[in-house]
């Protein structure tokens, strides 16, 4: 099964049939909304969708239930996750309404749980490549196959939000050579890796952040350009779902191998039970 995390506008445009809602209870609370599962077009492949910010965009980038969202997808049997994010541009040559598939991330968040393994079980997960290289390449190929212009690679600096950046912050990010700024790829990418799911995102640029002419970033501008990006993202995601080989696997699917630092015989039984969908094969 393939999972999709993004905005409701994108989901509503995907050709899903025979849809059903799945209410999934997780050890980390409820997901942003009940997950919608449906068959994609004529492929027969099931896709599970979760609206990242909730059905009515009621969760902020800081308070939305990232762990519950990812855990719920894992519980349903999802092995690959495609996400979409609205981002600001930190480069003159990346104007609004451009698609970028990033390959790196810089974490500037401060108040979010970053791991499933914070009590009774310690896991040191490598994260040198934050996004699955194979799934990212597939997204780039998919965008180009449907004649969408897309930038392959780049660094996504993830800020806390929900406020946009100050000018000094924006200029600092640019000085580091980073490419786009957003609020939601962390801890999503980290959690997907801990859940042994291949994860990649296609981002749509909505603004030039605040560095360009020191203009204010407005919600109206962001929403207008996000809507304009929807069709390009939808076409890219559709192509990616249609053409991803059913038997595709990668190193992400065994990411926990060799990373658990706590001996199995001292892990509390309730922790083992609670995290069984993640570590059952290892403990």
Describe this entry's structure for a reader.
- The chain is an alpha/beta fold and 283 residues long.
- It is built from eight helices and eleven strands.
- It is globular and about 60 Å long.
- The mean pLDDT is 94.
Q: Could you give the topology of this structure?
A:
Blueprint: E1 2-6, H1 8-13, E2 16-22, E3 35-40, E4 45-51, H2 66-75, E5 80-89, E6 99-101, E7 104-108, H3 133-145, E8 150-152, E9 155-159, H4 167-175, E10 180-182, H5 188-194, E11 198-207, H6 219-243, H7 269-274, H8 276-279
Parallel strand pairs: 1-4, 1-5, 5-11, 6-8, 7-9, 9-10
Antiparallel strand pairs: 2-3, 3-4, 5-10, 6-11
Helix pairs in contact: 3-6
What is shown here, in short?
With 283 residues, the chain is an alpha/beta fold. The protein has helices at 8-13, 66-75, 133-145, 167-175, 188-194, 219-243, 269-274, 276-279, and strands spanning 2-6, 16-22, 35-40, 45-51, 80-89, 99-101, 104-108, 150-152, 155-159, 180-182, 198-207. Strands 1, 2, 3, 4, 5, 6, 7, 8, 9, 10 and 11 form an eleven-stranded mixed beta sheet that branches.
């Amino acid at each position: 099964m393939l999972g999709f995390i993004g905005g409701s506008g994108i989901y509503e445009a995907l050709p899903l049939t025979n849809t059903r809602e799945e209410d999934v209870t997780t050890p980390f609370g409820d997901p942003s909304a009940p997950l919608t599962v449906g068959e994609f077009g004529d492929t027969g492949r099931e896709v599970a969708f979760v609206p990242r910010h909730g059905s009515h965009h009621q969760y902020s980038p800081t308070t939305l239930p990232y762990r519950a969202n990812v855990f719920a997808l894992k519980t349903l049997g999802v092995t690959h996750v495609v996400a979409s994010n609205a981002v600001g541009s930190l480069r003159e040559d990346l104007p609004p309404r451009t698609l970028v598939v990033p390959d790196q991330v810089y974490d500037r968040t401060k108040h979010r749980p970053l791991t499933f393994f914070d009590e009774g079980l310690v896991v040191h997960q490598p994260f040198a490549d934050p996004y699955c290289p194979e799934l990212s390449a597939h997204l780039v190929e998919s965008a180009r196959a449907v004649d969408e212009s897309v930038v392959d690679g780049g660094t996504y600096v993830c800020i806390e939000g929900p406020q946009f950046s100050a000018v000094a912050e924006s200029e600092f990010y640019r000085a580091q050579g980073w490419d786009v700024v957003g609020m939601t790829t962390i801890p999503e990418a980290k959690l997907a890796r801990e859940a042994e799911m291949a994860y990649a995102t296609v981002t749509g640029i909505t603004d030039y952040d605040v560095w360009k002419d020191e203009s204010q970033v407005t919600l109206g501008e962001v929403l207008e350009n996000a809507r304009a990006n929807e069709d390009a993202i939808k076409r890219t995601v559709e192509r990616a779902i249609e053409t991803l080989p059913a038997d595709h696997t990668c190193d992400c699917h065994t990411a926990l191998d060799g990373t658990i630092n706590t001996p199995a015989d001292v892990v509390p039984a309730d922790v083992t039970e609670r995290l069984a969908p993640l570590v059952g094969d290892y403990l």
